[in-house]
Specification:
- This protein has helices at residues 17-28, 40-47, 65-79, 103-131, 155-174, 193-196, 202-218, 223-233, 250-265, and strands spanning 8-11, 32-37, 55-59, 84-87, 136-140, 181-186, 244-246.
- By secondary structure, the chain is of the alpha/beta class.
- The protein has a single domain, classed as NAD(P)-binding Rossmann-like Domain (Rossmann fold).
- It has a seven-stranded parallel sheet with strand order 3-2-1-4-5-6-7, with helices on both faces.
- Helix 5 links the parallel strand 5 (136-140) and strand 6 (181-186).
- Helix 1 crosses helix 8.
- The protein is globular and about 50 Å long.
- The two termini are 29 Å apart.
Length: 274
């Protein structure tokens, strides 16, 4: 039987990139999935890549608490229940020194990444606690989450991901006596629109060569993160509330670093954009 048979999942920010690949993996494993974006065009376009009976599209700005509550209600109305909520939607700040940054842009990253995760977690938790459903909430980590993962020039993104980790573990502790699992997933470094978009600031131009080398060494396809998401969402995945899984853990980092010279020599570096 499929690992997620009869499960209903919401995945925010899932019309492209990592979120879309996770959504596709969930559908393959038997789940019904709600994909979201703040753009109706993106939602309508992405729906063409999914089987109509298994996927529902919903326009949602995750920085708006009310819209997250409506998202949960719309999902239950469409599919009858909710089992998994993945707070995947996120953006990054422009590659700037902090003194050159735009306060409004910096705050927007926090609104979407951190507040969006809080709003989504809160909306899902309210549903799970009211219904007694033993649901799962998966929040997304990133650069800045781990202690040695500094994020110069993208301080809003790094700060938001560090805060998301602390938030996730705090909420997992708060609800440790309830049948709800709250977990953290690090998708690793993936060549998505987030890391290749934005203006070419002077700092970005100065750091371009170093940045591209880091991406060449450590980037992976989003399927790695998607398989971990399936594991976390599955009843037989062996994951518990408070768990943290990473697509770029210590062993994988060492392997990617060790294999990089050989991948470069034999032109085996995957530069696919997702």
């Amino acid at each position: 039987m499929a690992k997620l048979f009869d499960k209903v999942a919401i995945i925010t920010g899932s019309t492209k990139g990592i979120g879309k690949v996770i959504a596709q993996a969930f559908v393959r494993e038997g789940a019904k999935v709600v994909i979201t974006s703040s753009s109706k065009i993106n939602v309508d376009t992405a729906l063409n890549d999914f089987p109509e009976q298994n996927v529902f599209g919903h326009v949602c700005d995750v920085s708006n608490c009310v819209e997250l509550e409506k998202l949960v209600s719309a999902t239950v109305e469409r599919f009858g229940k909710l089992d998994v909520f993945i707070n995947n939607a996120g953006i990054s700040d422009t590659f700037y020194n902090i003194t050159d940054s735009d306060p409004e842009d910096w705050g927007r990253v926090v609104d979407i990444n951190l507040k969006g995760t809080y709003y989504g977690t809160r909306a899902a938790l309210n549903y799970f606690l009211e219904t007694g459903n033993s649901g799962k909430i998966i929040n997304m980590a990133g650069s800045g989450t781990d202690k040695k993962s500094n994020t110069p020039y993208i301080s809003a993104y790094g700060s938001s991901k560090a805060a998301i980790a602390r938030f996730t573990f705090a909420v997992a502790e708060e609800y440790k006596n309830h049948p709800v699992s709250i977990m953290l997933l690090h998708p690793g470094l993936v060549r998505t629109e987030m890391i290749r978009s934005g203006p070419q600031t002077p700092e970005m131009k100065r750091q371009q060569a170093t940045f591209q080398t880091i991406v060449d060494i450590f980037s992976q396809p989003p399927s790695v993160a998607a398989s971990l998401a399936v594991k976390m969402a599955s009843e037989k995945g062996g994951c518990n509330s408070g768990d943290y899984l990473s697509a770029l853990d210590g062993k994988r980092k060492k392997w990617l670093l060790f294999s990089y010279p050989f991948r470069k020599l034999f032109h085996r570096i995957d530069r696919t954009n997702y």
